[in-house]
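Moderator note: this is an archived Q&A kept for reference. The question asked for a predicted structure of one protein chain; the sequence and the answer are reproduced below.
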Amino acid sequence: MAEDGGDRDHQQQPPAAAAAAASDSAGVEGRSRESVKLFVGQVPKQMSEAELAAMFRSVALVDEVTVIRDRVTRVSRGCCFVICPSREEADKAVTTYHNKRTLPGASSPLQVKYADGELERLEHKLFVGMLPKNVTHAEMTDLFSKYGNIKDLQILRGSQQTSKAGCAFLKYETKEQAVAAIEALNGTHKIEGSSVPLVVKWADTEKERQARKAQKAQFQSSNMLNANAMQQNSVFGGLQMGYVPQYNGFGYQVYYGIKNEVRLGVGP
């Protein structure tokens, strides 16, 4: 819990800065801001937290190990989370064990990776949208370097055949620099050649991207079903259900029940 003086400081800060400060003091899930969570797969179900902690602590500093268990049976699901105090220590664990050691009782080598969202959090990665198609690398660097040291910048340009705007991804050295850029530019700054202000926000994690892609696919599928249903209603709406129009053998059909339209057929 923050002290009263700290609370007053947060109230005087802009919302984004206050959120960043709160995150820095509280950490992620109650842990320090520098700590890193790893996901470990292909763990034998009989292994305990103590055994896994001893194994990982033989190659790196480890704060905590948590076996992921079934909520009902409490049986291990064959994977766990490992929390290391720093990225350097986490990289030691990944380098030593990922795809390099198969534990007794497991069918495949250990899978040791950064947990969902950890890389984005550690790399202070931002998404920048609503960029004019002709924006240059130098323009972006000049603008965003006012708020900190840029580690990486990638510009994705919209197609010349469409009106879709371009976008970019960039990484800062620190979280404070990224927060400063968001506060100063998001929704307020316009780059020359654009009629709308920039969108500057934290880049989505891989999990968020997959969820958005699934939602988009579901939306498109729903629209297609609705369009097909409307098309069928427009074609068959004027006919009695279950009725097949009479075919006369001369290339004409006799229709019944269609208002304001008469078609004559030749035949019996």
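Archived answer notes: Helices lie at 4-12, 15-26, 49-57, 87-97, 118-123, 137-144, 175-185, 206-236.
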